[in-house]
Amino acid sequence: MEIKVQAFLVHGFEDIESFPIFVNDKNYILVRMKLEEQYDRIVKLLKRLFSAGEIKSIYIPKNKKIQKQLNNLVTTKKSIKKSLDQIKISFYK
Fold it and tell me: What whole-number distance in Å separates Cα of residue 2 and Cα of residue 20?
């Protein structure tokens, strides 16, 4: 069994790479771990922005110039969660 999920690499606030990856019985654990690592990286980045006072919440920045990057981070976070759910449904029965 093989499924195709979207994977992401978060290099920074403005630098996010997206690419498809095929998950099978042999690599699903590694892919899940890498996706969880990227998810945690996004959460830590959002917490750091909140504690620095640059954002009030995930959707409301104090500086409107970073709204696009903030929306991109939130969308990426949701996509990673969706990919993790696909892996769990397919391989953890």
Answer: 13
